[in-house]
Write a structure and sequence with these properties.
Blueprint (H helix, E strand, L loop, with lengths): L3 E8 L1 H8 L16 E4 L5 E3 L7 E5 L3 E8 L6 E12 L8 E11 L9 E13 L4 E13 L4 E7 L2 E5 L2
Parallel strand pairs: 1-5, 4-11
Antiparallel strand pairs: 1-2, 3-4, 5-8, 6-9, 7-8, 9-10, 9-11
Protein name: Inclusion body protein
Organism: Pandoraea terrae
InterPro entries: PixA-like_sf, Uncharacterised_PixA/AidA
Length: 167
């Protein structure tokens, strides 16, 4: 049965900026060490690399994979935004990933009464694709790091995997 696999990608923006410096090379960002990226999915969707930058996601033909990115500060100090997906190997195994935006109502903390959360409408942004054939996909995500005022600090990329099976 097909399913949706959500991939949460938390990026250590401070360490990346300290180690690789600030740059504005949107067309050719440097490849960073995967140790600065933390990818998480449910345990049933892990081939290997849970909570690391080389997560190999397990999927079945017909599944939808959705990626969401955040900085470790959740945008308080820096924010990161994916801007380009590059398939290195196995491009034909998935539909072309694209960015999507939707409006959702989410519960948020209520400091006046912590047992009664408030609700807030927010834009929900993610990248998604559908798995089409069996095999392994190697890809890059290019992303930018911005400061809290929205100023570009730098652009970078790294390369995880997707393993697609028949069952």
């Amino acid at each position: 049965m097909s399913q949706v696999t959500d991939v949460l990608v938390a990026i250590d923006t401070k360490t990346i900026l300290d180690r690789y410096g600030r740059n504005s090379s949107i067309s050719n960002p440097p490849l960073i060490d995967f140790k600065h990226v933390f990818m998480i999915v449910t345990q049933g969707n892990v081939v290997s690399g849970q909570a690391g930058g080389e997560l190999d996601v397990a999927a079945t033909i017909g599944d939808v994979i959705r990626w969401r990115e955040c900085s470790l500060s959740l945008g308080f100090e820096q924010q990161c935004i994916f801007y380009k997906f590059i398939g290195n190997q196995g491009n034909e195994l998935i539909s072309p990933p694209s960015s999507r935006e939707s409006e959702v109502c989410i519960p948020v903390p209520n400091p006046q009464d912590p047992t009664k959360p408030k609700k807030q409408m927010v834009s929900n942004y993610f990248w998604s694709c559908e798995t089409l054939k069996r095999g392994r996909v190697t890809y890059h995500f290019q992303f930018m790091i911005l400061d809290r005022s929205g100023k570009l600090c730098g652009c970078y990329q790294w390369d995880p995997f997707i393993s697609i099976r028949n069952d």
